[in-house]
Design a protein that fits this description.
Blueprint lengths: L2 H24 L3 H5 L7 E6 L6 H4 L7 E6 L9 H14 L3 E7 L3 H12 L8 H15 L7 H22 L1 H8 L5 E8 L4 E4 L7
Parallel strand pairs: 1-2, 1-3, 3-4
Antiparallel strand pairs: 4-5
Length: 207
Amino acid sequence: MSTETHAAVARLLSSNSQWAADVHKSLPTFFKDSGKGQAPKILWIGCADSRVPESVVTASKPGDIFVHRNIANQFHLDDDNAMSILAFAVDQVQVEHVFIVGHSECGGAAASYNAVKSGVAPSSTTPLGRWLSPLIKLAESLGISEKPISVALPAIVVANVKRQVENVCKAPTITNAWSQKKNVWVHGLVYDLHTGRLDDLQVSRGP
């Protein structure tokens, strides 16, 4: 292990140790209570971007939010990972709200815009190329190839969140929950990196 790698691990462990000590000091029973189980009411489906940590931007604590994150906050109906998380969150954890959360300056959305503008999509032989394919098709359908990225990127981000809300609502877990009159809602938000604020796209759907 290189000195630099060792230092990175040491910094992480040191920060964790300080955080755990601070939490224990302010909330002495927090970790004991955490070990008893979880009961979050929110499933957050967001982007893997390091600038949008859900617990931080919502001032939440561990145990408040059930989380699934990936490139460009997508929900593919043929993705067992996403489908199993949704099923576990709704059927077992009993969440009541599913939030699809996109963000400004999204790298996945930018890559999709560049693919449409250049006419050259990432290779479908790579995992990233296959993952971005639906988003590239969505970007292409918006007719924004001649728009500057400052205009096109926000449009793709918003359209993507709306599309993923639609996809979640088509998932058997959600349609079954609604047929059983379960109080589960699906929402679409966009986080603005420049202001730190979440914007509600007003596309919420429920039973």
